[in-house]
Specification:
Helix content: 55-70%
Number of domains: 2
Order of helices and strands: HHHHHHHHHHHHHHHHH
Distance between the termini: 16 Å
Structural class: mainly alpha
Largest sheet: none
Strand content: under 5%
Radius of gyration: 23 Å
Shape: globular
Length: 478
C-alpha cells in the first residue's frame, strides 16, 4: 500500500477513527489495532511475507526474554548471535544470494574453471532491510543492557511492524520507539495538525518534485548513449532531486502519520543538500541509517580512536557496507567507496566536525564562502549519485565519460522548464525552513488563518495539477 494511493487515503482515516474513538480507553487494544493495521498495510503488497515479519518478531522477542534471564556472558553472546545470524541470514538470502552466486561463478571463470549453478527467482520482501535493522537494535541494546527486555509481546510486535515506517524507515531504535508503546496516548490537536502539515509537505516532495524529476531522470539514464554530456548532467541533477524528494518525502509522511497516532519518530533528513562538506551531508542524510552503522558497527570497530590506519579502514568499511545495504550491485559499493574518499580528507585533518550548526543561521542570505562550500559538496554528491542510479558499472563509467567530454558544452536536448521551476521553488522553500525539523513546519505559522489555508490549498492544487506520472518509492527496492 503506497502513501500516495487511494487505498492509503481510505485506510488511514479508518485506522485513525478506530484508534481514537473505539480503542482509546485500552492501551493494549490500541497496540493490537496498530499490529492488525500494520499487517494489513504490509499484506496489501504481498501477504506471503507477513510470516517473515512475524518470525523475526518472535525470534527477537524470545532472544530478549532469554537475555533477561541469562547472566553467563557465553549464553548472552549465543543469544545475541542467534538474533544476528537469523536476521542477517534472511536479509542475505533474499537480497544478496544471487549477487554472491554470480560473482562466485565469475571469479572461478576468471581462473578457467566453469561452475554450473542456477540463480533463484527471489522476490525481495519490501522493507526487509529496514525492519531487520530495527529488530536488531532491540537485541543488541538488550544485550548491552541499555534497554530492559519487554514482556509485552503485543507492544513489541507493534514496534517491529509499525506501519508508518515499516517499509522505508526511519529505522527506529528500540530505546526510542518501544517505550512509547507502553504509555497511554492522548489525542493532541496541535500535534495532529503538525502531522498533517508534514504529510502534506511529504506528498509535495514525492508527487510534485520526485515523480516529475523521475520522468526525465529515467528517460536520460535509460537512453544515455543518445544524449550529449550536457543532457546527462541534467539527468544526474534530476535524479539527485528525485531521490531526495522521494525518500525524504516518504520520511515526512511516515513521521507526520505517526504524529496523528501520538508517536514521535526521529528526524531522518535535515536539509542535506545545504551541507558545506561531505561529513555534514552524512549527518543530515538518512540519519537513522548512518547513526545505526555508527553506533553498531563503526564504534565497536574502534571508530576514529585507534590510529590513522584503523581510522581509514573503519571509514571505508562503514561507507562500503552502507552502500551494499542499498542493494546487491557493484554500483552501490562504488557509491559508498566514493563517499569514503570524499570523507577521508576531513577525517585525517580533524575537520569532519567543523560544520555542526545550521548554515547561515538567522540569516536569509548565505556568504559567498558558504555558497561555494555548498555548491562544491552538492557537486560531489551529484557525481556519486550517477553510480547509485546507473544499471551497472559499465553504464556509470560510460555516463561519466560523456559528461567529461566536449559534449558537455553542447546545448541540452532536453530542458523541461516546468520541472526546473518546480525545483527552484522547492529549493527556496527548503532554504526558508532549514532551521526547522521540516521545511513547512513554521512557514505561514503566524499568518492569519485565511492566508495559511490559502497556502495549504495552493500546495494541494499544485500537487493535483502539476504531478508527474506515479512512481513507486525508490527505497522500496532496498
Amino acid at each position: 500500500m503506497l502513501f500516495n494511493s487511494i487505498d492509503f487515503a481510505i485506510f488511514l482515516p479508518i485506522v485513525f477513527f478506530l484508534y481514537w474513538f473505539v480503542t482509546n480507553k485500552n492501551l493494549k487494544l490500541q497496540n493490537f489495532l496498530i499490529v492488525a493495521a500494520s499487517y494489513l498495510f504490509y499484506g496489501w503488497w504481498d501477504w506471503r511475507f507477513l510470516a517473515l515479519i512475524l518470525f523475526s518478531t518472535i525470534v527477537d522477542y524470545a532472544v530478549g526474554r532469554g537475555l533477561s534471564k541469562a547472566l553467563n556472558i557465553s549464553k548472552r553472546k549465543i543469544l545475541l548471535w542467534t538474533s544476528i545470524s537469523i536476521n542477517l541470514g534472511f536479509l542475505g538470502f533474499f537480497k544478496y544470494y544471487n549477487f554472491f552466486l554470480d560473482n562466485f561463478i565469475t571469479a572461478f571463470s576468471f581462473f578457467g574453471t566453469e561452475i554450473k549453478a542456477s540463480s533463484l527467482n527471489v522476490i525481495l520482501p519490501v522493507g526487509i532491510s529496514f525492519y531487520t535493522f530495527q529488530t536488531l537494535s532491540y537485541s543488541i541494546d538488550v544485550y548491552r543492557r541499555k534497554l530492559e527486555p519487554t514482556k509485552d509481546f503485543i507492544a513489541f510486535s507493534a514496534f517491529v511492524s509499525f506501519f508508518p515506517q515499516l517499509v522505508a524507515g526511519p529505522i527506529e531504535r528500540a530505546t526510542h520507539l518501544l517505550p512509547q508503546f507502553y504509555k497511554k496516548r492522548t489525542f493532541d490537536y496541535s500535534k495532529a495538525v503538525d502531522g498533517l502539515r508534514q504529510i502534506l509537505w511529504g506528498l509535495f516532495k514525492k508527487i510534485l518534485v520526485a515523480d516529475n524529476c523521475a520522468e526525465f531522470a529515467n528517460l536520460i539514464f535509460n537512453n544515455s548513449d543518445e544524449y550529449s554530456g550536457s543532457t546527462l548532467v541534467l539527468g544526474a541533477l534530476f535524479f539527485t532531486f528525485q531521490i531526495y524528494g522521494d525518500f525524504s518525502g516518504y520520511s515526512d509522511i511516515a513521521i507526520g502519520t505517526s504524529r496523528l497516532f501520538g508517536f514521535d519518530l526521529m528526524q531522518n533528513f535535515n536539509f542535506p543538500y545545504f551541507s558545506r562538506d561531505i561529513a555534514e551531508f552524512w549527518r543530515r542524510w538518512h540519519i537513522s541509517l548512518s547513526t545505526w552503522f555508527r553506533d553498531y558497527l563503526y564504534f565497536p570497530l574502534g571508530g576514529s580512536r585507534e590510529g590513522t590506519l584503523k581510522k581509514i579502514r573503519n571509514t571505508f568499511l562503514i561507507f562500503i557496507v552502507s552502500g551494499f545495504w542499498h542493494g546487491a550491485n557493484w554500483t552501490f559499493i562504488i557509491w559508498g567507496a566514493l563517499n569514503a574518499l570524499y570523507f577521508l580528507p576531513l577525517l585525517l585533518t580533524n575537520s569532519n566536525r567543523d560544520n555542526l550548526d545550521i548554515v547561515s543561521k538567522g540569516r536569509l542570505v548565505p556568504t559567498l564562502q558558504e555558497v561555494f562550500k555548498m555548491l562544491f559538496t552538492f557537486s560531489l554528491t551529484v557525481f556519486a549519485w550517477i553510480f547509485f542510479r546507473a544499471d551497472n558499472v559499465a553504464h556509470a563509467l560510460n555516463y561519466v565519460s560523456k559528461i567529461f567530454s566536449k559534449e558537455l558544452f553542447l546545448k541540452p536536448e532536453i530542458f523541461p522548464t516546468k520541472i526546473i521551476i518546480i525545483i527552484a521553488i522547492f529549493i527556496f522553500i527548503e532554504w526558508l525552513g532549514r532551521e526547522n525539523e521540516y521545511a513547512m513546519a513554521k512557514i505561514g505559522h503566524r499568518w492569519k488563518r485565511f492566508y495559511r489555508l490559502a497556502l495549504y490549498y495552493a500546495i494541494i492544487i499544485s500537487i493535483f495539477f502539476l504531478k508527474g506520472n506515479e512512481q513507486k518509492f525508490i527505497y522500496f527496492d532496498f
